[in-house]
Amino acid sequence: MTIEQRVNAANAQAVEILTKAHPRWTDVQKALDVIPGMTSHTVLVPGPPLPVEQLTYPIQTSVCGAIIHEKLAKNRDEAWNMVLNGQITVASAQDHQCACAACMTVSASMPVIIAQDDIYGGRGYAPIHPGSNPKVLRWGFYDDDVERDLSWIRDFYGPALGQAVRACGGIDLITILSKTAGMGDENHNRQPAASMCLALHLIPYMLESDSPQCSHIIRALAGNDRFFLHPMMAGVESITESIKKIPLSTVIAGMAGNSVEFGIQLAGTGNRWYTTTAPVIKGTFLKPSYTEEDLLGYLGDSCVTEVYGLGGMSAIAGPAYMRMTGSTLGEARSRTEKARTVSLGEHTFAPVPWDDFKGFPAGIDARKVVGLNVLPVSHGGSALKTGGQGGAGAAELPLECFKKALRAIYQEALSLNLAEN
Fold it and tell me: What share of the chain is helix, strand, coil (3-state, %, to 5)?
């Protein structure tokens, strides 16, 4: 069998997993108890690994906030010194099967959503979406108000969500996506339909809770139209755990930005990152006074949903998001067609009515991206250099990431040939 045939076979295996996997939200537990490699002094951050000295201000704030939240330090200066002295391990979340959207960090006591792939057995994790309040750790803020919210999520919201999810036997994420197909979600930056569908599943079980916080908990869930993003991120991580074990596959298995660099992972090389300068997400600003100079480069793990085919890959499913960020239905169609051009498979369980009932693409092949010079477009929210969200829009995935990844596969192939000969 030639190397090309081996790569094709590996890619077929990766696409089969991507399209046949069945992720289900099963529980909520403390990060320390469930995330592989997690310790009491570990803080997980979004994006490819970066030397701590290069972490930008909002991520520094979120890291320090997490350390203070764990009562390992009393203030930001003390917390940051612990990082610089190596007392705290700062690690890439996706290297631990976890996804942290925007500037979010995960530390030991924080509750995380647990998803399991019922077909292939992988597990994935993500923190709980904090809601619509703009002043959250998720956007690089930390003060007494943020700490009160983090403590409430840890002590009340997380346990209540876990209890409800266990009581209902888990939430089938494929069913949620199927039921809400054609309702305008592209399920990266827009998911009100999926979030409300999920809430309808959970609220009857929450009503049975004897928690004194029951009404507050239900309001928090029902009022959060972005909630579904985080169970979906955990669901995708449960799938990519399996595809990262397929040697020579050139299918994308992870991608994210840390605001300095943007990187991708391939199924054939596991948790190795291939990075280049992070692009800026361009679209609509939340305030007219903001400019592109106020923005950081691409930041966050939420684009792992696009590895599965959501967001910019299925832009045609979310025309309202396109309009909100200054684009058109024609551009939405173009983004999805670009993704189809460089993908090897298709999800058929959530067809889009205004796209001739086509499904959304899955299994981006790095060979096609480079060979055809077709760059998929990712959706995302843009972070301000001072912390907070600056806007929302889209960015082309950088070509250099794909070139570096293919060079690595080539070296793997050479090593395999030499070993066999």
Answer: 45, 20, 35
Q: Alpha-carbon distance 60 to 398, whole Å?
A: 25
Per-residue pLDDT at 420: 60
- Copy the structure tokens of residue 200: 């309808």
- Token couple for 303: 């684009």
- Name 262's bridge partners: 257, 276
Q: How far is CA 267 from the centre of its chain?
A: 16
Q: Which two tokens stand for residue 222?
A: 């029902």
DSSP state of 98: B
**Residue pLDDT, tens place only, 264-274:** 999 999 999 99
Token pair recorded at residue 45: 């951050």
| Residue ranges of the chain with per-residue pLDDT less than 70 | 417-421
Question: Which amino acid, one-letter code, is at 224?
Answer: N
Query: Tell me, what's the pLDDT at 98?
Result: 98
C-alpha–C-alpha distance, residues 65 and 397, integer Å: 30
pLDDT digits (tens, 9 = 90+) for 103-141: 999 999 999 999 999 999 999 999 999 999 999 999 999
- Are 108 and 138 in contact by the 8 Å Cβ rule? The answer is no
pLDDT at 419: 52
Short-list 139, 94, 103, 67, CA closest to 259: 103
Q: What is the pLDDT of residue 255?
A: 97
Task: Please give the backbone phi and psi of residue 89, each rounded to the nearest 5 degrees, phi first.
Answer: -90, 115
Query: What is the value of pTM for the model shown?
Result: 0.96
Distance CA(143)–CA(50), nearest Å, equals 25
DSSP β-ladder status, 377-383 and 389-396: antiparallel
List, in sequence order, every beta strand (DSSP E) within 18-160. Answer: 23-30, 42-45, 89-92, 111-117, 123-127
DSSP string across 294-360: GB-S-EESTTHHHHTT-GGGGGGG-HHHHHHTT--HHHHHHHHHHHHHTEEEEEEEEEEGGGTTEEE
